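Worked example 4.2. Below are the chains of a multi-component assembly; read each line carefully before continuing.
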Amino acid sequence: MATIRDVALLAGVSTATVSHVLNNTRTVSEVTRDRVVAAMEALGYQPNAVARSLRVNETLTIGLILPDVELPFFAWVAKCIEKVASDLGYNIILCNSGWSLSRELRYLENLQTRRVDGLICISVGLTNEHVAPLLRRHMPVVWFEEARIEGVSDAVLIDNVRGAYEATRHLVAQGHRRIGCILGYTPTVVTSDRLLGYQHALREAGLPFDRTLLCSGDYEAPSGLRGARQLLDLAEPPTAIFAFNDMMALGALQVAHERHLRVPDQLALIGFDGIPLTEFMSPSLSTVRQPIPEMSRIAFDLLLDRIHDRAPNESRTVRVEPVLVPRASTLLV
Amino acid sequence: MATIRDVALLAGVSTATVSHVLNNTRTVSEVTRDRVVAAMEALGYQPNAVARSLRVNETLTIGLILPDVELPFFAWVAKCIEKVASDLGYNIILCNSGWSLSRELRYLENLQTRRVDGLICISVGLTNEHVAPLLRRHMPVVWFEEARIEGVSDAVLIDNVRGAYEATRHLVAQGHRRIGCILGYTPTVVTSDRLLGYQHALREAGLPFDRTLLCSGDYEAPSGLRGARQLLDLAEPPTAIFAFNDMMALGALQVAHERHLRVPDQLALIGFDGIPLTEFMSPSLSTVRQPIPEMSRIAFDLLLDRIHDRAPNESRTVRVEPVLVPRASTLLV
DNA sequence: GCAAGCGTGGCGACGATTCGCGATGTTGCA
DNA sequence: TGCAACATCGCGAATCGTCGCCACGCTTGC
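Applying the procedure described above to all four chains together yields the following structure tokens:
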């Protein structure tokens, strides 16, 4: 494969000149430039980004660690972040942790070795100690959507307490007094925050907090299915279910159909996340939308600030407001 | 950041020895090895993969070009391929083309520049001429699921004609005589093959091919919704609909609910792809499953063969059989 | 006493960028 | 017209961090 030296040789100039033509780093006379360009084309020259990265200490690559791209929510995130990155000339390395801390740690090692310029992370297990070494090596990390580590590196989060509060309040406003709850993967802050919001709304409405109305889930559809069955089998079943994400709400919806319950008359359902899919369910699913495109842009901006050393020393946390999206699955006509 | 030279200095050995400890490329006495390891730890040494790649001419990275990770089918593919790759020490660069040829071409350039070791590609627009230069530069390309370019580079495909044939035959076997069809993005071979299979099954059953029963789609849910409405508004509407992928079938399912049609009694529905989601719909959706995990492994193996120069000169096409998965949306009880 | 084998080190690529230097050509002013 | 000052543009060479070829010294066994 042709190198910059080959191009220089053919064009009868030095490699320095070719490099300047390539990067526009200094004025090059038109004659010379034309000769260089012609040589590059004649040789089918492709600059070697690896060599460049070694020299300038910058890979134009960032790592994206997330639990599972297959879940529509994370796929949505991946798409949005990739878009922002590629528009700015960055590539992303996709790292699917499968909810496993040990895989997250392997990726962390790997990405450092590869000298990515930064890291966006939706992590389930990483803590303070794990990322401290990266930060010391000036590898910026931005937490996305889930952060157990505020104050150490930058983060862009939504107010999960608020979102869950709004969802629950919406159900209360529709007249529901027994509201079931399908939780998510419990070690996460996201889950515990949403639970707080739910409890807060109940308290505000003067409704009792009844543990039997809670059931566990893991953010995937089958667990929503199991959860809904469990709740509906109660002696005194709920008239509405708040699932901690949209996929579990989907599972719950299937149970409603299975048992011939009319939604929302006999059972109201609301999810969380606002994945595009919710709009195309039958009935369309109420949800709390996370503004992922905006959050992606913010996350990348935070990263770029650090990469270019124009960020304050202390860490920054940007908090974005979730938006209640009431649809047919909760709205009585 | 510490380099191999720093480690060598501290351990009192040469960089060659450190490199050999690092890569297990020759025997190093235990004493020396221990000293080297200790030095690496003391310095928090992280080998520089960029420099290594430059030297050994191998990046352990592959590019993955696909139309849209947000669609569950492609997300599934991305997850499976990433899994196979990372288990073998490879990273993947995610390239979301957004169904745009110009973006595909940009990614192609970019990935070459970055010297990825290979490329897995679900492409909508790339042709022979576009990849020929890559192949000449010994950058292997494997087509995944959609290939307009058999015979030039390797490919792993399913038999779309067969899959669509099976789906249609299944509907016929359930007694349907007017079977509507929601097509996919038409420039793709995938779409035209599925249409062939549909026609073949009709012919075999002695049913007429009626163009009014076809409507266009783009593989996304809203187009399935529009398509189903269009078909059901016909003077003589179909009793079954075959959507060319699961997401459009989902859209069609919403229309069924909207119009209070019982599925499958009044309207049967079948999709294509077999994304995990179909199992959790209500009713669960019949589909034709593509064995994506197996296909991912095969694709990566094809790539590795080429990377390590142990592949035949001529290109190889592996064809995998799709599997009919009949579920509640077509099966009368 | 010598060959074989083991463990180790020196040094030059890999392909780009960039700094300092120098050879031109251009301008301004006496 | 002559010459200094300056802008323009190209070149040579060092450098980034790693690996792998070649050479070399020491031990060991016959």
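Take a moment to check your reading of the output against the notes. The two ends of chain B are 68 Å apart (CA to CA). The first helix of chain B runs from residue 4 to 11.
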